[in-house]
Amino acid sequence: MTSTGENDLNWMKTPIQRNPRKLFLLAAVGLLLLWGLLHASVLSSKVTATWSYDFARDPACSAAQQKSCVDHFEVKDITNEQRLELIQKVPNPSPAVGKVNNISSVFKYGPPFGNRMICVVAVGFDSKGNQVTSNPYAARVSIFIRPRANLAVVF
Questions:
Q1: Average pLDDT score over the chain
Q2: How far is CA 33 from CA 29, 96, 113, in A?
Q3: Are 108 and 87 in contact (CB under 8 A)?
Q4: Cβ neighbours for 113, distance < 8 A, ≥ 6 positions apart
Q5: For residues 87 and 74, what is the distance between their CA atoms, to the nearest angstrom?
Q6: What pLDDT sits at residue 36?
Q7: Which site in 3, 9, 52, 78 is 20 to 30 Å from 102, CA atoms measured?
Q8: Is the pLDDT of residue 145 over 90?
């Protein structure tokens, strides 16, 4: 005759209850999948940013002009003033002569969701060949990013 000890009741437990490591592993996999879903572009919004730039004042960089010129643009999240985050680099339009309207870039953004401050800066080189950027607060917009939304911003 056997005693009704703990070992005799193990047949009533599920496999997960018998092995806490499996429970931990399943929880870890679940958290990893959730993190991946939140950081994948599945929930991201599609943002179209449009701006104008006058290349007559600051010409585009070229093989002939590599100083005192604009090399490209950058779209940045400046919500946290201590940590500006690059969203996307945008090449100069072709042709980049005179005032160019409707320069645009389409990108996925989010998470994070909610109110965000987005800017466009011109990146170029000064007369000594040092990389310089325009003021990130000169061309900025405040937008509300929602999961899977299509948004358009004009600077």
A1: 86
A2: 6, 44, 19
A3: no
A4: 45, 145, 146, 147
A5: 7
A6: 64
A7: 78
A8: yes
Rounded Cα distance between 93 and 60, Å, is 9
Residue ranges of the domains in the chain?
6-39, 45-154
| Chain segment 104-124, per-residue pLDDT in tens | 999 999 888 999 999 999 999
As given in the structure block, the two tokens for residue 111 are 């998470």
Average pLDDT over residues 24-37: 72
Q: Record the tokens describing residue 145, joined without a space.
A: 């990013």
Q: 116 with 145: CB under 8 angstroms?
A: yes
Q: Rg for the chain (alpha carbons), in Å?
A: 26
- E runs forming strands in 41-146: 45-54, 69-77, 85-91, 99-109, 114-125, 131-133, 140-145
Side chain identity at residue 137, one-letter code? Y
CATH of domain 45-154: 2.60.40
CB 144 within 8 A of CB 110: no
Q: Dihedrals φ, ψ of 148, to 5°?
A: 60, 30
